[in-house]
Each structure stands twice: as structure tokens, then as C-alpha cells.
Amino acid sequence: MILLSANGLGRQFAGDPVFEDVKFELRAGERVGLVGPNGAGKTTLMRLLSGDDQADYGSLYVRPGIRVSLLRQHPDFRTDESLMTVARSGVASILDLQRELEEAAQEIGEAEDDADRERATKRYAELHDRLEHQDAYSVDHRVEEILTGLGFGPIDFPRPARTFSGGQQSRLMLAKLLLETPDVMLLDEPSNHLDIETTAWLENYLSRQTVAMVVVSHDRYFLDKVVTKIWELHEGKVDAYPGNYSQYWRLRTEKAKVLERQAERQADKIADLEAYVRKYGAGQRAKQAKDREKKLARIERVETMRDIVGPVMGFDEVERAGDVVIEARDLSKAYDKPLFQHFNVQIQRGQCVGVLGPNGSGKSTLIKTLIGREKPDAGEVRLGHKVQIGYHDQGLQSLAPETSVVRAVWPEDDPDWVQEDVRDLLARFGLSGDIVFQTVGQLSGGERAKAALARLCATNANVLVMDEPTNHLDIWSCEALERSIKEFEGTVLVVSHDRYFLNQVADRLIVLGNGKARVIEGDYETYQRLAQQDAATATRAASPPPAPAESTDGKTDRRKRKFPYRKPDDLEREIGEKEAVAAELEDQLGQPATWRDPVKARDTQIRHEDLKKELARLYEHWEEALELNA
Questions:
Q1: How far is residue 123 CA from its own chain's centroid?
Q2: Where does the pLDDT of residue 557 fall: very low under 50, low under 70, confident under 90, or very high at 90 and above?
Q3: Is the domain defined by 324-530 classed in CATH 3.40.800.10?
Q4: Are 231 and 40 in contact (CB under 8 A)?
Q5: Rg of the chain's alpha carbons, rounded to an integer?
Q6: Sheet strands (E) in 426-500
Q7: Beta-carbon count within 10 A of 216 CB
Q8: What proportions of the chain, in percent to the nearest 5, are helix, strand and coil?
Q9: How far is CA 578 from CA 522, 570, 618, in A?
Q10: Which residue of 89, 114, 144, 473 has the fewest CB atoms within a 10 Å radius of its CB?
Q11: Rounded Cα gap, residues 392 and 264, in angstroms
């Protein structure tokens, strides 16, 4: 069932089109990820779908009777509204039905004759069915489940909504929208202001929902977990791809290659026809040449893919620092509660260290303490030989709003820089033309983020410290930043909740939580595996030990082995190798080229199924080894 559709949809501001000739269909139950570069018009399209804005041309069909709700980014709460009041307003329609049900029950009891009683009973039954259909009798549980999942506790429920931070208010608006359960949810950057744990909860929640949704997000990990379809908005048009983000990227890449080959073959054919016309146009074969000329005119030129090109970015060569860049010993810091205690770390030159943890765990405080911007309560930090720190703050406070972009990025007290150098640098980070003479306050969030990264590059620091640098960047700018960090010869310390980004750049992680900080050697996937192992170990430790089995002579015995003795580490290594092969086979199965060869497709499927069975046995073997090798 089609809920929304567009045909030739267009919107323009000040005469310039944001997009034009947009076509799409949204069906019941589809979870669509809307992606595209900054400035492509994603937010504008969401406002059109919600009815908050009107198209300049084209048509937008909204199925009669359906409810479409957009996530509001700038809430305006009444003074007396508590967090719980705002959240429960999301289920206002259910609460109204419950009141009507109570009224119908009262009417049944007060009915003066059978006709009135029958009328009231029929109304009561209809209302009861509608409430059951909307799962209304668990509404209080749903409200608390969603608020808790988004990081609020019972102590927050009676607090006035206005007293929460901007990020918390955004989370509250998300809770309200989830509770509304409209027919179509429009979610514009729903994981903004969420830490990794809360984002994971939201992924699981959304992937279980049956309502249709359109999600704008630059979080590739989030898109992989949630969406079933991708709309790419670029150069005024929407192209649709089945599957999640990874599937979209594979299909897009494959489609680009196919179109490129078709265009090359067509170009060769056109060149041959044109050569024939030139050679025989006025001779004995003029008639054949005329036929080929007509054939040339009828050829419909193959359009190659419209590439989305991110900024170049890139950090310059820097002075070489000592082998040890930062060394912290017995470091402790607390505010209302301990953030980290007795923390020791040594950061080597050339490493990229990611910092992650829940909101409020002290990530920003830790990196400021490590670079000397805050004093520790205990312990000491030493910076290495020739270390020069460049700092990118989360709030982009380093850029004064009233200053022009070119002046805000200009390195202070450096006589070697001229305006053309600064403009070249800004262009490298995706800012060019008249925009560089606007004030910082006039820039969009994405433009400010790029300007801040350009300013960081201009410091020529050999230790780059970044606090949430991917906020406001589109996917292609995130990829450019990832490439720039991997190519940088200095050291990087980065706070991020973007798991895909951390997987691409981090050699090590510092994980904060529960008043502690610990170092993980590896990327986010490594940390996730270790966290799952820790959770499994904790579950086993909390469970009562199984009663020992008795042998026939009355003596107790340990459970017999199902598999031969092997060390858990060896099994983990083999599991990792086979998972890599399985991922490669899954990648092949996601490519259209595989399915064009039936034999290859069948063989790949068989190998993949066999490998899944091997992995299942290895997981079981590994669990046995953990239990019986002790």
C-alpha cells in the first residue's frame, strides 16, 4: 500500500532550485534512509513530506487518513510541562480513547432503557477494540520503556522539560514521536545527541517497528542496522536502492561500473559511425553514410552515474614529535562523581586513539586533561618532545560567530600566510566562493564543521585532538576526514560516537564508564566483541552453578567434552578468520554480477551456508573451552 508518492516534485529558494523532478513511492512498513551531500535538500524534502512546507511544482500524494509526523529539532515547552507530561502527550489520542471508554461504561450503568443500554454497550465495544488494537493497556509501560531507553530515569520524570539541556530536550522530542506511532515517521538525524549505548537501543527499537519511516542520518552504522531501502538525493533527483547502506553502496558502485562500460562501448560505436560518415559522406557510399548518420541521431546516450564528490581535506606535513606523545600516570578526575581514577596510558607517535563512552562519562574532560587544558585531581600528564597540540572543540567555540570565515581560519601571528593561502585551504575543506567572506554565524552546521577542521589544519599541529568532529558532516565529508586521518603522519586523539568512523580510523580506544577508563587495543568491533564476552562471563557468573553430574559409582564428574581440547585464544583466532571469509562471501552475494552467473551464485551460496555451520560449531567449541579449560 502506497502511503506517500511524489512526481516531478521541486522546491526553490530565491530563484535557485534546491531539487527538481523528484520521484518516489513510500509503502507501508518501508524504512527508508535518505542520504545525500550537505545542501542537497534532505531537510527541505522532509518538511515537504510533513506538510510544514509546500512544493513550488510537481505533486505530492499523501494517502487520506494517514498520520505523518516529523521529529522536531527545536522544541518550545510550556513552563509547567514536566518531562513525563511531554512524553505522555505523544499518546494523547490513546488517553482520549480511554476517557471515552470510561464515559461509555458510565452511560451503560446510567441507561434508562434497553435501547440506550444497547447503544452505549455497542460504543463501549468499539472503543475497547480500538484500544486493544493500539495496545493501549500497556501505555504506561511503553512510555517508561522509551524514556528509559533514551537515557532518562525515574528521577527525571517530574522535572520541568525546560530545565533539561538542549540535547536532552531533543531526546525528549524523539521519545514523544516514538510514542505517537504515526503511520509515517520522519526522523531527521535522530541519533544526534545520543551516545553509542542509546543509539544501539534506538536501532533495535526502530528495526522492530511496522510503521513506515524516512530517516536522514550520516551514521552509516545506524543506517545499516535500521533501514530497508535507500533514497539518494543528489543534483535535484532521487535514486532508490534496495537494502541498507552497505548494500546501497555496493549496488551503486556496481551500477557505476556497468554504466561506465556501456558508455565506453557506446562511445566506440559512435566513433566508428562518425568515421564512416566522414569517410563516405560524399562518395559512392553516400547512401549508407546517410543511414549511419540517421542511426547516430537516434542513439540515446548512456548517462554515467552522477558522482558525489566529497571535499579533498587532508592535513599537511608536520614536525616529527618524540616517540611518546602523551603519558598519563595515575590520573583521576571527578566533578559530582568520579569520571576516571588511577588511569594510566601512553600514546605513541602516529597512533589514532578513539575515546568513547556514555553521555556524561567524562570524554571531553579526559582529552582536555590529557592535553593540559584541565588540571587532574590527582596524577600527572607529560607531553612528549616537540609536541604541538591542535584542538577541535565539540561546540566549535574556536570560531567566533561575528568573524568572517576567512579571518576565523587565518592562523594567528603567522606572517607567512596570505588571503589566497587561506582561501585555498578552505576550498580543500569544501568551502569556496563568496561563502568564505560570510560570517561564521551565517554558516550551516556542516559548513561550520568544515571551517573548524580547516582551522585545525592551519595550526600545523602534530597532535590533533578532535571532540566529535563528524557532527554535522555528511557521509562523503566523513569519508574524506577518515582518509585524511589515516594519511596523517602525526598523532590523533578523537572523541566520537560514530562507530563506523571509529572502525575506520582508531588503532586503540579509551572507553569510559562507571567512573573508570580502560584502554582497548583495536577498533570499535574489537571493543564490541570484548564487551559481549564480558557480558557472557558476567551472566555465567551470576547464574547458579549446575548441579554436578553423578557417575555410576556415586562420584561427581565434570561435564564430558564434546570437542577435543583447544585453547580459547586459538579458537577465537580461527573464528575471526572464518568470519572474514564469510563477510567476503556475503559481499559477493550482494553484488549483481554474482547472480548473473547461476553456477557461481549457487557455489557461493553453498560455501556461505557451509561456513555458517562451521562457525556455529566453532562458537560452541569456544564456549566449551571457556567453561572446561579453567
A1: 46
A2: very low
A3: no
A4: no
A5: 30
A6: 463-467, 491-495
A7: 22
A8: 50, 20, 30
A9: 19, 13, 10
A10: 114
A11: 45
C-alpha cell at 491: 598523532
- Helical axes 92-110 vs 114-133, angle rounded to 10°: 160
Spatial CA neighbour of 335 closest among 302, 386, 376: 376
Q: Residue 223 in contact with residue 106, Cβ under 8 Å?
A: no
CA 596 to each of CA 315, 428, 472, 591: distance values in angstroms, whole numbers, following the listed order: 43, 41, 40, 9
Distance CA 494, CA 504 (A): 12
Categorize the per-residue pLDDT at 504 as very low, low, confident or very high, splitting at 50, 70 and 90. Answer: very high
DSSP tally for the chain: helices H, then strands E: 20, 20
Domain ranges of the chain: 256-298, 324-530, 562-628
Instruction: Report the C-alpha gap between 624 and 210 in whole angstroms.
Output: 39
Sheet holding 508-513, edge to edge: 389-392, 463-467, 491-495, 352-356, 508-513, 516-521
C-alpha distances (whole Å) from 207 to each of 25, 136, 251, 443, 616 are 20, 21, 22, 34, 25
- Name the region of 350 (left: φ>0; alpha: ψ -120 to 50; beta: rest): left
Burial of 552 (0-12, 13-18, 19+ CB in 10 A): exposed
End-to-end, the C-alpha distance of the chain in Å comes to 57
24 bridge partner residues? 6
Other Cβ atoms less than 10 A from the Cβ of 175: the count is 23
| Cβ–Cβ < 8 Å for 11, 41 | yes
For the record, the C-alpha cell of 590 comes out as 550482494
DSSP track, 529-585: HHHHHHHHHHHHHHSPPPPPEEPTTS-EEPPPPSS----HHHHHHHHHHHHHHHHHH
Share of the chain above pLDDT 90, in %: 51
Closest to 409 in 3D by CA, of 452, 345, 362, 446: 452
Residue 444 has pLDDT above 90, yes or no: no
Q: pLDDT for 226-274, tens place per residue?
A: 999 999 999 888 999 999 999 999 998 888 888 889 889 989 999 998 8
Task: Output the pTM of the full model.
Answer: 0.77
Instruction: Say which residue the cell 579571518 belongs to.
Output: 407
- Return the amino acid letter for 30: E
Residues with Cβ within 8 Å of residue 503, at least 6 apart in sequence: 523, 524, 525
Residue 315 CA: distances (Å) to CA of 75, 347, 419, 464, 470: 38, 20, 19, 10, 16
Tens-place pLDDT, residues 264-308: 998 999 999 888 888 887 777 888 888 888 888 888 888 888 888
Residue 383, pLDDT score: 95
